[in-house]
Amino acid sequence: MRGLGSRDNKFALAVATAVAVAALGLAACGGDTVGGGNSDEVSTAEGGKAAGSLTISNWPGYIDPGKEGTVAEFEKETGVKVDYIEDINSNDGFFGKLQPQLEQGESGGRSIFVVADYMAKQMYDLGYLQEIDHADLPTVFKTLSPSLESPGFDPERKFSVPWQGGMTGIWVDTSKAPEIRSVNDLFDPKYKGKVTRLDELRETPARVMLAEGVDPAQASAEQWLDAIDKLGDAASSGQIRRFTGNEYTEDLTAGNLVAAIGWSGDASLIENENAEWRMPTEGCTRWSENMVIPVGAPNTAAALAWMDFVYRPEVAADITEYVEYISPVQGVKGLLEKRGSELAKSEIVFPTEEFTRNCTGQITPPELERVNEAWQDVLTG
User: Fold this and answer.
1) Are residues 139 and 192 in the same domain?
2) CB atoms within 10 A of CB 369
3) I need a surface site. Which of 93, 158, 220, 326 has the fewest CB within 10 A?
4) Are 235 and 13 in contact (CB under 8 A)?
5) pLDDT tens-digit readout, 349-364
6) Residue 244 in 3-state DSSP?
7) Distances (CA, A) of 342 to 311, 324, 338
């Protein structure tokens, strides 16, 4: 969930909008066709001995780096050369960039993407993802958290393997605005031009509704549009500095903000000792992101080997210590306790039911095409 500049981001959003509208049309008229943009059959990723090279697309700051990091460890054990690309800044922007290739049954040379639940489902329904054979992932299905075994978007885990989970809340520069606790606070005129919002439909309008006492999961299209209008007015007035993907971390590092709507585990990307992630008083968004194997992936055996490797509890614990997101792997908390890590006590990394009692999932609005068009109008100005 992480770097485009403002002008480039608006261009990417405009492209993504056109693609998203086209995708909605494809989904509506494409029936149950799955398995490579133009194929009538589901393809299954082929397992086997890992060798050769592997290209992974992920978000910035989403893995432990360096010579002792997970990528290096995997390369040393398997002999596979990994090209690990941090080129995902937002789900919709990434989809817009890759969709033309995926529609032709090509993956842009990538063998793994990491995308949110709803995006994984959208890609699968359009025939852009391969299914996975559980027999090729024995460690995954031995150590996967029971709560993630059968999600609504992929109840049999046919095409997705969780990477990390997290929460959407407020990053606050406590040296400038320690009083900020609610999303409503970001509309205060004294913070004009010093707050940012995420550019994702299922994040920002939903947080505005929740702060106003409206459950996004029960909201009508008109309530979604009212929230979008409120955000549009705030953007037009200059109250909102800009809508971002993960580049809000750069603004916090530079000292440009008092607060940003952002993701819980991004501490490794924010070089500001006063930046603190806070659970909004009205609750957060809870989400997970998934490793998926696209159609046309050049080395699915290595992709499956990678997925199984990162589900070893000791490897997952190393990743957790760096990224500070919610691991999908059982046993990580116990390992961190044995290591004496303070993260084992963190409710951001190991949230309790009480801590997240007011949180919702990533909600897809009713009348999606209409609501999305209004949202994109706000984003592109």
Assistant:
1) no
2) 12
3) 220
4) no
5) 999 999 999 999 999 9
6) strand
7) 22, 11, 11
Distance CA 214, CA 332 (A): 35
Give the contacts of 327 (CB within 8 A, at least 6 positions apart): 164, 165, 316, 317, 319, 320, 349
Residue 123, domain member (yes or no): yes
Cβ pair 292, 113 in contact under 8 A? yes
Look up the CATH number of the domain holding residue 314: 3.40.190.10
| Residue 39 exposure: Cα atoms within 13 Å on the Cβ side | 19
**What average pLDDT does the chain have?**
90
Which pTM was predicted? 0.86
Asked if 225 contacts 146 with a C-beta cutoff of 8 angstroms, the reply is no
Same domain, 178 and 134: no
- Tokens 């006063």: give the residue: 274
In a 3-state reduction of DSSP, which class is residue 21?
Answer: helix
Q: Dihedral of the CA atoms 17, 18, 21, 23 (nearest 10)?
A: -110
Full residue range of the structural domain in which residue 81 is found: 6-165+288-345
- With a CB cutoff of 8 Å and minimum separation 6, the contacts of 31 are none
Quick one: average pLDDT of 65-75?
Answer: 97
Q: What is the pLDDT of residue 40?
A: 56
How far, in Å, CA of 183 to CA of 213, rounded? 12
Task: Report how far residue 188's alpha carbon sits from residue 137's, in angstroms, rounded to the nearest whole number.
Answer: 50
Instruction: Give Cα separations from 141 to 90, 124, 137 (angstroms).
Output: 28, 21, 7
Question: Which amino acid is it at 164?
Answer: Q
Asked whether residue 241 falls in the same domain as residue 336, the answer is: no
What does the alpha-carbon distance between residue 264 and residue 166 come to, in Å, rounded to a whole number?
6
Cα–Cα distance for residue pair 172/190, rounded to 1 Å: 15
372-to-103, 121, 332 alpha-carbon distances in Å: 22, 17, 38
* Alpha carbon separation from 18 to 13, 15, 121, 198 (Å, rounded): 9, 5, 19, 19
Residues 39 and 127 in one domain: yes
Number of domains in the chain: 2
Residue 287: in which H helix or E strand, if any? strand 285-292
Q: Are residues 125 and 161 in the same domain?
A: yes
Other Cβ atoms closer than 10 A to 16: 24
Whether residue 373 sits in one domain with residue 270: yes
- Tell whether 247 is covered by a domain: yes
Question: Could you tell me if 207 and 145 lie in one domain?
Answer: no
